[in-house]
Specification:
Elements lengths: L7 H10 L2 H12 L5 H7 L1 H15 L2 H14 L1 H22 L2 H7 L1 H5 L5 H14 L2 H17 L8 H21 L6 H8 L8 H12 L5 H10 L1 H20 L3 H17 L10 H4 L4 H13 L6 H20 L5 H21 L21 H13 L12 H15 L9 H9 L22 H15 L1
Helix pairs in contact: 1-2, 4-5, 4-6, 5-6, 6-7, 6-9, 9-10, 9-16, 10-11, 14-15, 15-16, 16-19, 18-19, 19-20, 20-24, 22-23
Length: 470
């Protein structure tokens, strides 16, 4: 008895009305069918699969998530290959957390073989590898993708330089360890290893890094003069000193420290502060809780390129960097204490925002505790992060029409807030909704209420309310 032909129109009609749980089953049924290229493009099936990927990832139902990817990969490898950056980035998080290096290498194979179609996700993957201190795998990936990215006409010129820095800092860490062990560093061999990465044509860069690695750090007053005369050199010298300090005292990878340092400097340089107020290292490294709060909010609220990993790395990394800066006399004790208090407060807010998926950021507990945080506090926080890996959240039974209406209502409600205070949750909901609602014109000047909540806190609270309605 022959099977009835699959009714694609009926499938699409049911999918549009389905809850998340029903949509999951409908998609699995669909993937068992042969699919024409034209139909896949007409339905934008890639987007449908990516949206379900987000639903399953948020549910923490890892067996269901892995099965979902296996079905796509086995039944429709061409679709998987076209959308791999959106699937494999989660696998990288998953296998890094589980400390499964061979599975991790498999999850990175598409990035190695076809990096140009997923450049931004490639850089995100490099960042998470650096924050985990996965030196060997990060270096392998960047060496494999450097030349394809350099030659690609679809990638901004110079993007490959970010990739070359990863093997460079792995080599510098090796050289530092050799120095600490009393061995002689073969600098010519090191430069030869880096030659395929375009660094052989930049002898001054390598010479500066070698000097920073081997020379003692200047006194605070000398650093202050250097700050005035050459800010770039000042920051580069401190970056290397931080790498060496944290490698020695916290066994932190150079890659990890450099990622934290770059995130900190990016934040500090993006503040709207007149240069006249940044005339000393102390002033440069001083910031307010409101400035950091708003910057973190921007990172997690970015619709086109969310940078949650950067936000968490920055917030949890600041205590390590400010312990170092305080230790070498660049910042005062009062500044150090204020920064530690501010970051402690904002950690609670950001943790609430990512309450269901904190395990994704557990790289912060692969580091040794900073000196400014008590061990018991560090261990209790690590337990909370890891506990989220064990909790699953069933897919919603809320019908599609009701879900879309709620998303639009949330988005409309968020428009009453100043642009800087729109929540990440409602922004993402709007981005996934069919209608495109433009941003309103900038609000007229208004007096800020004295008890105004932080943008991150508003986002976390709105996210909690959404969960209760489900």
């Amino acid at each position: 008895m022959s099977r009835s032909p699959f009714d694609f129109d009926q499938w699409h009609s049911e999918y549009l009305q389905a809850s998340s749980r029903q949509a999951h089953q409908l998609i699995l049924t669909l993937l068992e069918q042969p699919l024409s290229v034209d139909w896949v493009e007409e339905m934008d099936l890639g987007m449908i699969l990516v949206e379900m990927r987000d639903e399953l990832a948020s549910s923490n139902d890892f067996p269901a998530f892995l099965h979902f990817l296996d079905v796509i990969r086995d039944r429709h490898p061409e679709i998987y290959a076209a959308e791999y950056p959106y699937f494999d980035t989660f696998l990288v998080d998953y296998y890094l957390y589980r400390d499964e290096p061979e599975h991790l290498r498999q999850a990175l194979s598409n990035f190695r073989h076809n990096p140009a179609i997923g450049v931004e996700p490639l850089f995100e993957v490099c960042e998470i590898l650096c924050l985990y201190g996965a030196n060997e795998i990060a270096s392998e990936l960047c060496r494999a993708t450097y030349e394809p990215i350099r030659k690609s006409s679809d990638v901004i010129r110079g993007a490959e330089d970010e990739l070359s820095r990863v093997p460079l800092y792995v080599s510098l860490e090796t050289a530092y360890c050799q120095q600490q062990s009393g061995e002689t560093v073969d600098w010519q061999a090191l430069e030869a290893e880096l030659q395929p990465l375009g660094l052989s044509g930049k002898p001054q860069v390598l010479a500066d890094l070698r000097r920073d690695l081997t020379a003692p750090l200047p006194r605070p007053d000398e650093l202050s003069v250097e700050f005035q005369n050459d800010l770039a050199q000042f920051l580069r010298r401190l970056a290397m000193a931080a790498c060496c300090h944290l490698a020695t005292h916290k066994q932190m990878s150079f890659l990890t420290t450099r990622a934290l340092w770059d995130a900190l400097v990016e934040f500090l340089e993006r503040r709207d502060v007149p240069p006249s107020k940044l005339r000393s290292p102390e002033a440069f490294f001083t910031f307010s809780e409101d400035e950091l709060d708003r910057y973190l909010h921007q990172l997690v609220n970015a619709i086109l390129s969310e940078r949650s990993t950067t936000a968490v790395g920055l917030l949890w990394g600041i205590p390590y960097l400010y312990d170092f800066l305080h230790g070498i006399g660049v910042i005062a004790t009062s500044t150090h204490q204020q920064v530690i208090a501010m970051t402690t407060n904002l950690k609670g807010v950001l943790s609430a925002f990512f309450a269901q998926s904190l395990w994704r950021f557990d790289f912060v507990h692969r580091w040794q505790p900073p000196d400014s945080i008590e061990l018991a506090t560090f261990q209790a926080e690590a337990a909370r992060f890891r506990d989220t890996f064990e909790h699953t959240y069933p897919l919603s039974d809320e019908p599609a029409a009701e879900r879309q209406e709620r998303q639009l209502n949330d988005w409309a409600a968020s428009l009453d807030l100043p642009t800087s205070e729109r929540s990440p949750a409602t922004a993402r909901a709007a981005a996934q909704s069919p209608p495109v609602i433009p941003d309103p014109p900038p609000p007229a000047p208004y007096k800020v209420p004295k008890q105004k909540k932080s943008p991150l806190k508003l986002a976390a609270e709105l996210g909690t309310k959404k969960k209760k309605r489900r």
